[in-house]
């Protein structure tokens, strides 16, 4: 794979020699991304100057899960676009925004007329990531080299800056604790208001009339690297028990991680293919999750969160550890489905604990994160 990183960088470096007029803004994101903050960034950037926009979906160019020769043939055309068209556009980009690692950057040579901003895809700090979880020395080197090309790293709070500094191996003066663009959505009154929430609910009620008059419980577990463990997620949640106990007042939505899809649905509504995650968070009354950073976003809404780490010992040993003691999560911890039912029935949630957690992970609770970022980078260039 390192060959592909170097090839991409070499072609980019060639185009960069002749790119004098930077007219693009490029977002390098995942195809599965639902980063609603990009529209807010574009709005603020357009206030400064009109740009052309390009999206590079970095995981679109993998050969994984290609079965037929036709699929592989079509993928070759995508790769030509990736290695030649996208590299050319990148070389003519004034601003490059990332939301994840992009290892070709390790070998790319940006000129002084380009600015690279790492947004990262998760707010706050929960699961360890980046340099903190990598053992492979070659990958560590890629992270270091890639991070050296970043001009600014945006984080949600100054309190988590040290964590991001270590995870990215980046200098303190490059870290901007301005809040993350994706949270602008939740503080935008056009989105987070009773009328809009009812409008979103109505869409689901038309498709699923059985949810009318009921509160929505959203179960959104995270991804496991082990495929069997992903398949086991729903086996560890007794949907029949949940339904028989709570069906009169609650309905269960299930959203799998974008990297892992489920097709079944029984005693729950499968919203895994619903791409607008922020809308799901707005209409949900309770969130159930395990180790997903989605809870850091949901906490902004000051609504109950139940944590269900049914495979905690496996996860912390084989997947990832955390930046704080898991027992300090901002919500009750359930060990089985009956625990979840009891917690929902009693409705005894400590929302003050959620508010304290929010203040640990966010310095700004407003819709101006994108504005702060754009104002700063434009001012610095001037």
What labels describe this entry?
2 domains; 11 strands; 40% helix; 15 helices; 5-stranded parallel β-sheet; alpha/beta; Rossmann fold; 382 residues; 6-stranded parallel β-sheet; single chain
How is this structure best described in words?
The protein folds into 2 domains: 198 residues, 3-Layer(aba) Sandwich (Rossmann fold); 173 residues, Rossmann fold, CATH 3.40.50.12580. 40% of the residues lie in helices and 12% in strands. It contains 15 helices and 11 strands. The chain has a 6-stranded parallel β-sheet, covered by helices on one side. Helix 11 links the parallel strand 10 and strand 11. Helix 1 packs parallel to helix 3, helix 7 crosses helix 10 and helix 9 runs parallel beside helix 13. The mean pLDDT is 92.
Question: What would a concise description of this structure say?
Answer:
With 382 residues, this protein is α/β, with parallel strands linked by helices. The chain has helices spanning 2-16, 37-48, 69-91, 137-147, 161-168, 184-187, 194-207, 227-232, 239-246, 277-283, 294-298, 312-318, 337-346, 351-361, 369-381, and strands spanning 24-29, 52-57, 93-98, 115-118, 152-154, 175-176, 215-219, 250-254, 269-270, 286-289, 305-307. The chain has a six-stranded parallel β-sheet, covered by helices on one side. Strands 9-8-7-10-11 form a five-stranded parallel β-sheet, with helices on both faces.
């Amino acid at each position: 794979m390192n060959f592909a990183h170097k090839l991409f960088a070499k072609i980019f470096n060639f185009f960069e020699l002749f790119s004098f007029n930077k007219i693009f803004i490029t977002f390098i994101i995942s195809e599965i991304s639902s980063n609603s903050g990009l529209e807010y960034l574009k709005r603020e950037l357009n206030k400064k100057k009109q740009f052309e926009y390009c999206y590079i979906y970095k995981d679109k160019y993998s050969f994984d899960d290609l079965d037929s020769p036709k699929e592989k043939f079509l993928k070759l055309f995508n790769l030509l676009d990736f290695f030649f068209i996208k590299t050319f556009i990148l070389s003519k980009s004034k601003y490059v925004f990332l939301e994840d690692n992009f290892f070709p950057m390790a070998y790319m040579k940006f000129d002084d007329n380009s600015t690279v901003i790492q947004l990262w895809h998760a707010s706050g700090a929960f699961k360890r990531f980046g340099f903190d979880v990598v053992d492979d020395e070659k990958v560590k080197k890629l992270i270091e080299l890639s991070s050296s090309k970043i001009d600014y790293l945006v984080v949600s709070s100054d309190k988590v800056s040290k964590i991001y500094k270590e995870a990215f191996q980046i200098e303190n003066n490059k870290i901007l604790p301005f809040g993350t663009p994706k949270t602008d959505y939740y503080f935008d009154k056009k989105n987070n208001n009773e009328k809009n929430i009812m409008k979103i609910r109505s869409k689901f009620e038309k498709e699923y009339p059985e949810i009318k008059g009921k509160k929505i419980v959203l179960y959104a577990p995270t991804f496991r690297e082990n495929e069997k463990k992903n398949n086991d997620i729903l086996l560890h949640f007794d949907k029949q028990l949940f339904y028989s106990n709570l069906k009169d007042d609650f309905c269960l939505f299930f959203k799998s991680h974008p990297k892992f899809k489920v097709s079944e649905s029984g005693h729950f509504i499968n919203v895994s293919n619903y791409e607008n995650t922020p809308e799901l968070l707005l209409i949900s009354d309770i969130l159930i999750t395990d180790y997903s950073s989605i809870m850091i976003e949901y906490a902004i809404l000051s609504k109950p969160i139940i944590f269900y780490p049914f495979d905690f010992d496996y996860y912390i040993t084989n997947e990832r550890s955390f930046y704080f003691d898991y027992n300090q999560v901002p919500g009750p911890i359930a060990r089985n489905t009956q625990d979840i039912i009891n917690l929902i029935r009693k409705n005894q949630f400590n929302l003050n604990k959620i508010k304290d957690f929010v203040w640990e992970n966010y310095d700004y609770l407003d819709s101006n994160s994108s504005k702060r970022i754009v104002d700063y980078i434009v001012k610095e260039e001037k």
